[in-house]
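_Per-residue structure_
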Amino acid sequence: MNSEKVRHPIPPVYDKNSRILILGSFPSVKSREAGFFYGHPRNRFWQVLATVLEQPLPLSIEEKKAFLLRNHIAVWDVIKECRIKGSADASIEEAEINDLNRILDHADIRQIFVNGRTAEKYYLRYSERIYERKAICLPSTSPANAAWNLERLADEWKCIREYL
């Protein structure tokens, strides 16, 4: 499969009450098809947040947006556009980054978190020096991170509560 140049199709979710920003790397094919973040049925992002925040699992896009905003969570991705083969983070080339000021100028973001090592790599390479903010790397909720079960992920992700 050849890499193709893909532009990020999903707008960020945030409002003026958002206190934490969770950044992924770039949406998977399934997320791009679904038109929303973490759309792959085996990605554990929504299960982890629901577990950590002790709330019911949001199912529809509308429920997911409401869940994030109700809990003061902003979500977006580090990369705005790149060449990528399918959903393979390792294949990302020619990455252009999103302008995080779109969120940072309008919300009182207390902490930035990155979902996995790829998001961390691109945040450190491009974004950290621009925004002068450290990001905390959390283990990826991707199904590719099979070494981490839901319980272990939720235990690591609990640290987000301190900033909400």
